[in-house]
Amino acid sequence: MIVRAGWVKVAAQRGGKVMGEPTRWGMIGASTIAREWMIDAIRAQPDGAIVAVMSSSAERAAAYAAATGIPKHYDRLDALLADAAVDAVYISTTNELHHGQTLAAAAAGKHVLCEKPLALTLEDAREMVQACADAGVVMGTNHHLRNAAAHRAMREAIAAGRIGHPIAARVFHAVYLPEHLQGWRLQRPDAGGGVILDITVHDADTLRFVLDDEPVDVVAQSQTAGMAEGGLEDGAMSVVRFRSGAIAQLHEAFTVRYAATGFEVHGTEGSLIASDVMTQRPIGEVRLRSAAGEELLPLVQENLYARAVRRFHGAIRGDDTPAATGEDGVRAMALALAVAEAARTGRRVEIDPGSTG
Ligand code: NDP
Q: Cys-Cys crosslink for 304: which of 87, 144, 283, 313, Cβ 3.0 to 4.6 Å?
């Protein structure tokens, strides 16, 4: 495995942990994603422990801690960050809070795994990455899909030349937002609601990862088809051009009850057709079709979030990188924000070149 020197330095600066020494987490946000996935993902690690949770409400913090078996709870960020038992924080509050909470965590010397979108503006997202770098703490973005066996197998097949040169990709990520999540995503522009910051940002990261390519520009349309309010969109379609010349078509929605999800890459010598892979669960399959016929790629399924935490722990030790870095989070946001602008203006929008290195 290739390890960037920077991460070794980060680990050394922070007295990076050695194998077996636990990483002790503070959970910022009494959220659904933590309750449904991330608490288990951390506890699944032989070297992972959760020591505290923070909510803006003392009552919610106490109830959440009791329900999830987290020993300590706080209702103030500074109190959680002052807890010397906390090595790393997982930030899963609503999107407008990620920026300030990451800056504070970095200043307190805590490693940061932040939910997507990192922030509401690119400027804020870049500041978060810089703050973590300056503080010498590891920063990761919780883009789970690049941890899926299917997406990793597609990336490897493309890198191995199995479909020749990628010409086009299609991403099918139109789903129905579950009732228990039908809150701020549909109602609060100030919290970074809307399907583009919620799902397009994941598709942006997955495309960059699978194609190993960077987006150049985009055209897009969005809609409000009965669920979102306050000027927010609940559906979006876009077409992105990549540096290699490949084009990708994306569809995200909160409103589509019965569609299947999928991810396809079509190349000069073959096609990769993945089904049921734009999901939180470790499921789905990938078919490779070429002149040789059709085969299913072998997949070793693993919980996506557990893999993300395992790699984050490795980054803290200095022998791995986060599955998706802070920089990856910035780049995914750059594409998602370009989709939003293209849909709003009806124009082709170039991806902010400061975000594509
Ligand atoms: P939730 O709505 O469950 O939680 C977000 C915040 O809402 C919490 O931090 C909490 O504030 C507040 N909240 C929760 N329940 C209540 C309540 N009953 N009354 C009042 N406030 C409440 O959001 P999600 O878990 O769906 O999303 C959180 C973040 O995670 C977002 O950034 C989202 O984009 C991201 N996410 C990422 C996923 C991934 O796969 N990477 C999947 C799903 C979400 P407080 O902490 O102050 O109590």
A: 144
Cα dihedral 31, 324, 148, 17 in deg (nearest 10): -80
pLDDT tens-digit series, residues 36-61: 999 999 999 999 999 999 999 999 99
Residue 190 is given by DSSP the state: G
What distance in Å separates the CA atoms of residue 331 and residue 259, rounded to the nearest whole number?
28
Which ranges in the chain belong to alpha helices (H)?
Answer: 5-13, 32-33, 39-43, 58-68, 77-81, 98-107, 122-135, 149-159, 184-187, 195, 201-211, 304-317, 326-345
- The CA 190 to ligand 1 mean position distance, Å, reads 14
pLDDT in tens, 172-203: 999 999 999 999 999 999 999 999 999 999 99
Asked whether 102 lines ligand 1 (CB < 6 A), one says no
Residue 67 CA, ligand 1 centroid: distance in Å: 16
Residue 42 contacts residue 48 (beta carbons within 8 Å): yes
